[in-house]
Amino acid sequence: MTTLPPLTASAVAPAAALDSAPRFRRVFRLEPGHGAVVSAMLRASALGVYEAQLDGAPVDEDVLAPGWSSYEWRLRYQTYDLTDRLRGASAEDGGPHVLAAVVGNGWHLGQLGWQEKRRLYGEHRALLAQLDIVYADGHVQTVGTDESWQARGSEILTDDLYDGQTIDARRRETDWASPRRADDDADWAAVAAVGVDAELVEPIGPPVRRQQQIAPQRIWTSPSGRTLVDFGQNLVGWIRLTVRGAAGKTVTVRHAEVLEHDELGTRPLRHADAADRFILSGDEDTFEPTFTFHGFRYAEVSDFPGELTAAALTAVVVHSEMPRTGTFRSSHELVNQLHENVVWGLRGNFLDVPTDCPQRDERLGWTGDIAVFAPTAAHLFDVRGFLADWLRDVAAEQRAADGFVPYVVPDVLKHQDMPEEFTPVESAAIWSDAAVWVPWALWEAYGDREVLDAQYESMTAHLRRVELLLSPTGLWDTGFQFGDWLDPDASPHRPADAKADPSVVATACVIRTARMVAETAEILDRPDDADAFHALAERVQAAFLEHYVDGDGRITSDATTVYTLAIVFDLLDEPRRAAAGERLAELVAAAEYKVSTGFAGTPYITEALSRTGHVETAYRLLLETGCPSWLYPVTMGATTVWERWDSMLPDGSINPGEMTSFNHYALGSVAAWLHRVVGGLAPAEPGYARVRIAPQPPQGAMAKELTWAETAQETPQGLVTVHWERVGEELVLDVRLPEGVEADVDVSATVPSAAPQVIVGDGAERRIRFSREEVGAPMR
């Protein structure tokens, strides 16, 4: 096998300024005397985003490549196997061939953040490409980006991820990269060499691609006379538009997630224009703006010639390519819709980087969101590569900041003019803890030591930095904290104001993080580190108990979130744990079973209740439909998870705060509880090497609200399914396990007389019946 030459960091940019997104091309011929082509591999990247072609046809289905990494240190490249395009050809067969690409601004040069700042990483769009052609005799011909390339403008007049794209169909040339045009040098100009300082790295994660297409559900005229389109689903991607009209006429498509007062609700977009403009050629034109993306359910189409019909528009859903691995269904349709909303929230925000939101002038890799959501994500999709790649950027940012984990990765906040109290210069609980919590979630879900090994330096650097931030009391009660961000009782204009003491939240997180790092050290056979980190966790836990917990189990600030974290993070001894569970249930009841937690507490509160014997309280909290609650947005027609419980007020108006999104996945972290406790399926050992099957159906008055549930998980061992149903006085459990996989089955929380049992999978479904009087035997 021939070894390919190393990839050179040589890129090209237009030598002179262009009025549009640049096209690049290189005409080449196969080299004579070496026989037929046996292999052709293209490695490509860009300062910007690119779409590459060979002989006028796309090299792959990827869009928005190379994606967004921490460009100062890591620039990913893609590898495309073009062997089938050239296999068997030789110089004697003639030619020529054309290697080409179009480059957009993307994350490298486009707007990032909420202050309309652009060009954070550089000044020029540039292409890096290297096609290595291997011949029968082993000779390798390399076609790389150098000054022999040419550049010219394109039909893409403007492109920005936030603002949208302008395409002039009058400038479109379908065969500009065809070999038929190889000798046509008209309008082609010189290129200049551009250096690439970042390390060129092969991606660990999947490419971004078109995933599905959605047709309009309704087209109508608004009260102001605007033409509106509803696709029925809040999604991320763009609209493909087909239109025929007078040459030079412009059709404008604006996007938004919601309607307000029966008009397009654009205020939450802030500075993001989120509009595509299509200039017609006079013939039938099809436009697809692939150098931008929008978060939307609704569109407003202006100046469309004639009547706009559903046949003219298609919503194209775009996200990183990840296999679906976990599903959940139940007898409760609102809960099913909640779960579906979480799935769509992940789809929209897992577009190369795990973002907070996909629509407004932000779309950043907020670490706090993914820190709490990673376990849920791992239930729903295979996110190993996606998050492992992002974690490499976490580590790169840390190394440049002495262990500090930024609040967003890639870190663009350092380029924003931040308020003094919010200047991101020091670690913050949950947000910076993503350096530890995310790889640990991947370990639990997939049982792969590689991610722990790759991230160990990052994990320990974060913990050691936090250790230095502890006060002499042993508590993390210094510096800025997000705390229980977006507490529903806080003013919409002051999202950090929360009932839970931020130092209690932060100190609880230190203990959890230290334990995870200690266990990681044990897994990686680093006993000295393990001992040191276990000792740190014990010291901070002792301080937590001394300063924040009284003898009766009351915790400082007496809020639902502090009890939730103390229970789920296992910070309390008995009987204070039981007392904390009782107090948590009391506070939930006092809030009339409406949500009273923010970012810190919400992912874990149902788990805290079910762990301490308050499963009925957990179900009442889950099934509440008043605002704030998980199901309130569902009753309001939501198809994704909202950033705020009341992003849309009951009167149909948008929350008055400046920070409102209708597609934020963090509060959807409850879906992990749906899988693990309602559905009853969880890993008993990392990677589901052993399975725990322990559904806790609702009891008492809640029993009639949810009578069956089922979940399925494609694990590294194979498919596991669990279905339970109440049949009269019996609980009937149907289980399927991969061959040889053992499962601990425990329904004693619902059927006290049922002793835990172990079953071994044989690939077939088996049924187990439990009654109040006795435990049924496994049946085929």
From TrEMBL:
Domain spans labelled Bacterial alpha-L-rhamnosidase N-terminal: 36-211
Record domain Alpha-L-rhamnosidase six-hairpin glycosidase: where: 324-678
Domain of life of the native organism: Bacteria
Ranges for domain Alpha-L-rhamnosidase concanavalin-like: 222-319
Catalysed reaction equations from the record: Hydrolysis of terminal non-reducing alpha-L-rhamnose residues in alpha-L-rhamnosides
Molecular-function GO terms, alphabetical: hydrolase activity
Record-given protein name: alpha-L-rhamnosidase
Organism ancestry: Bacteria, Bacillati, Actinomycetota, Actinomycetes, Micrococcales
